[in-house]
Design brief:
The chain contains nine helices and twelve strands. By secondary structure, the protein is of the alpha/beta class.
Amino acid sequence: MLTLVFLSFHSDHHIKRLVNYIHSSYPIIIIENSGNKKLKVELEKKHNNVHVEICEENLGFSKGMNLGIKLSKTPYVFLNPADIEISNESLNLLNETVKNFTDFGMICPVYKDESVHSNYAIWTKKNKPQNINLFGKNYSLKEVDFIDGTIILNKKITGDIIFDENIFIYFETMDLCKRLIEKNIKLYAMDQITFEHFGGQSHNKLYNHEAHLSRNWHYNWSKFYFINKHNNYFYALRKISPNLIKAVKNYIRAFLFDKKTKELSLAEIKGIMTSIFKGKSYYRPYK
């Protein structure tokens, strides 16, 4: 059985929609990062399969998902942001998959629309696809190097390899995938099982600017941290330098006449400089 975990930060509109249509046979854990106790009371009163964990602070993606993994009581946990839509049919197929195929660390369904980008990547030569039969139909699992965001984690295989809690958001799934592959743990994607991801819509629109500030700060902090962690400091410095130069130029151009661009560029600069000087990922969006 799968336990479904959703990360929520001012995401009531998505969370209520998800728990209302997902079949009650699936345990659902909501990691509520914005401290919304009313949401907990409302959902737990209405749905016996739902537990809302109220966090005392905004844990971000890594700590939030690690908490969801810890709270889950099943060996397979399906980790998700709030801004997705997946059918009960797809959930049933994924649940059946982990019953019939257990030699994996992570498995993911794929975006219904992959015209912009995919939620997985293949960078090296892999083995032939694994074929399984689900409800009388053949499905194939292809081995991949990277899975982003929406992930089924096999706790029996991954063990104590979890998300790096130094990372608040961005590059945390890439880091986890890299560490799992280094342990010869396999990752798979299933093209025939799909879901929708609405991208950047997990929070209420009222917080768009704060979310963009957070994105600019954390993306650059995490990029430098990830490269430094898996390569070396000077290589990371070389890779992040173009981002820093571009952000400084944007800040100078916007200094007098464009307050929002100036704030966004300054967030980029601060994130980069904090990471370069090995500071913690301290910035938190408006709560």
